[in-house]
Every structure is written in structure tokens, then in C-alpha cells.
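Render this sequence as a predicted structure.
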Amino acid sequence: MTTSAAKPAHQVLMQACASVGLDATAAEPVRLAENQIWKLPGQQVILRVARAGQLATASREVRVAHWLADNGVPAVRPLDVDQPVVVEEQPVTFWVELPEHKHGTATDVAILLKTLHSLPKPDIALGYLDPFVRVSERMAAATAISRDDAQWLHGLHQELAVAWAERPTGMRDCAVHGDAWPGNLVRTATGPLMMDLERFSVGPPEWDLVSTAVRRMTTGAVSAEEYHEFCEAYGADVTEWHGYQALAGIRELRMVTYALQHAASNPAWGGQAQYRIDCLRGRYGPRPWEWKGIL
């Protein structure tokens, strides 16, 4: 069924596809979230319709995909067309559809990150990592939490911004995925590969490693055995680095504000958003907690 949210995006992708010689008549939605993902049945093409004003990000994703291909890193591949295409201020990118795949394992994530982090800094413009991207906007849009909780989150944001600026020296900066979890580093029949390149940038590799560590230490989504295998495959345990707490705190804040963003448009997620705040404020005991995934 085509939802009301899908209708305007469908009009955008129809026009975008026509501009590169593709037929979007039978386009089917795959995921309608911040970025809307569509597929063209029978054409092995995936379309990504970004939010208005995200042309620079969409262009960077395409450049990154070409760079990864040139360096032999398994990743999604852009379709050989002139892109992104902008329709009504929304950039649309075109990708080769992946074969059947599933979420990667923690070890898959480690293997891909080790390959990525070992590469020289790319000679393409990526910009430096901003771990707080969209955090302020998400908090500003949060309407279902108390004023006290909102003020506390703002204070936490400020504290973490200072901690980020003053973080201790770690591994050398390199290209980082920026959102390295098993939904974005998936497994196909031929092995693991990277997708969702939106947050690619130059920055500390520890930022990519913290995602899995937080899934172990904060949410309990990764078992002790899985985390041990992750560290063995990568060759380091980021929790032993003195800057871990700062980066883990930022990742937790991002997870809270992501839940707040969804709760603003779907009250069903309000309870999960509040639970995450309560956990950080010490109302549910020590870590790890059980945070449900936001769909």
C-alpha cells in the first residue's frame, strides 16, 4: 500500500527517473524514513530520495561509493548515470540493487572497518566528522518530554561538546563510516559490504568502533562473546581508550534524540524515548539497559 507520506516522494522519483531514462511506474517503497528508499522491480535499481537541502550530502555519498570501489572495499555501487538529480529541492541518487542480504554480524562490522581504516585518507572532499549532526534539531522538535528533561538533555549536549573538543589522542584520523552498525554493514552470499554512506567523513576511527561497544555496554544488544570476537577481528578494544566515555556518551545522546525525533511524529515511540532519557538520568539502574530498536 502506498502511504500518504509516499505519494509526494513518488512524484519526485518519477520525475528523477525520467531524467535519466528509467521507468518508475512500478516503483515500490522499501523504507520511508528520513531518507526514502525505493526500488524499481525488474530493473535492479534502488533509489534514495533525500530530504530537501541535502544535495551536498547526496553528492558526497556518490563520491564515496566510487572511492570505495576504486579501493576494493565491498560496498553499494552507484548506477552509471549523471547524479544526484534534484527535483523540488530533493536530491535523488541511483544505486545497483543488492542481492539478498541480512544484517551483518559484529565480526563483519569489524572486518569492514579494519579494511576501511587502513586506507590512506581519501583525496575527495569529505569534511571532518561532526558527531552531533542533527542532535540540536531533534531536541528542538521534541514535544513530548518534560521541560526538566529537555533542559537536562541540553546540558548533557553542552558537556559532551566540551568532552569531544578535549578528547585525548587516539588512533590516526582516517575515513570513517560514521554510522557503523549491523544494519548499515550487511552480509550477502559473497560476504559483508557497506551501505548507507550518508555519514562518511574524516575523523577518529574510534567513532566507528564505539557503535558496537555501546551496543554491548549500554544496550546489551551485543553479547560478551560477540564483542570479544569484534575486538579480536579489528585488533583493538575501544573501551580501553581514555576517550571512550566521551564518545560513548555522544552515541547514547544520538540514540536518545533519534527516538525523540520519531516520537514527535509517532506517539507510539514516546515511551521508548522517555525510557532512554530515564536510563541516562539514572532512573533505571546501571548499564546495560534494554533499548528497543526504532523502526
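Summary. The longest strand covers residues 90-96. The first helix runs from residue 6 to 19.
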